[in-house]
Amino acid sequence: MLDQLTQLVRDVDGAWAAAIAGLDGLLIEGHATLDADLSLLVAEHAGLYRAAHTVYTDTLQGGAPRELYLRGERLSVYLHPIKTEYFLLLAVDGRSNLGQARLYGRDAARKLEATL
Amino acid sequence: MILDPLRTLPGVIAAALVGPDGLAIEAHGDGGDGLAAELASLRQGMDRTGRRLGTGDVTRLAFTSERVEVVAVTTGPYTVGAAMTRGSDTRTAQQTLARLALDISLPREQA
């Protein structure tokens, strides 16, 4: 699992962290090239995903979100749900390759699904 | 759409038009999205190469791998390219790409 997260960070231009976590906000496994609090990162994004999930499924009748991308001034995150209880988080910088993040993030999520 | 002239060329497996973020503006064929993401990545490296070597902007890229030939041209912030079966004649594709690049960089005339 750690190998796949490490490879994902290597393969995506601008990526600096990847993690697997539960939608309860608890970190399962993570890899970062910068000194960052991955537990806080996944906990906060689990809350954001849960909120998006509720709005899309209950309020908007749009079905469950298949991916989530948030771009901040100094932090951007791509999030891909795995099964119904977990998600893959990929943190990227402002000059990242979002195409790589989506494609390789989705691919990693599919591979990790088998191990969760 | 924009990539239509590439779709019918012999040997073309995939084609993509992409901006700096790596998301395909338009893609064709299996692996078109992947080609877009990697062309954006290569473009970033090419921009650095041109800048550091003082050669000016790199405007064309071509490489051959074990199974495919890839040709791409740049226009403004965009990169448009095609992946072709190894051994294909890439000349027509390169001419088509050059024409597409011109179309993309110029404002289209309103009918």
Features:
heterodimer; A: 116 residues; alpha+beta; Beta-Lactamase; 5 strands; 41% helix; globular; B: 111 residues
The CATH topology of chain B comes to Beta-Lactamase
Mean pLDDT of chain B: 90
Strand order of the largest sheet of chain A: 2-1-5-4-3
Oligomer: heterodimer
State the low-pLDDT regions of chain A, or none: none
As a percent range, the share of strand residues of chain A is 25-35%
- The CATH class of chain A, by name, is Alpha Beta
Computed over alpha carbons, the radius of gyration of chain B is: 13 Å
Helix and strand composition category of chain B: alpha+beta
Main beta-sheet strand count, sense and barrel state of chain A: 5 strands, antiparallel
- The fraction of residues in strands of chain B falls at 25-35%
What's the rounded overall pLDDT mean of chain A?
94
Tally of alpha and pi helices of chain A: 3
In the sheet with the most strands of chain B, the strands line up as 2-1-5-4-3
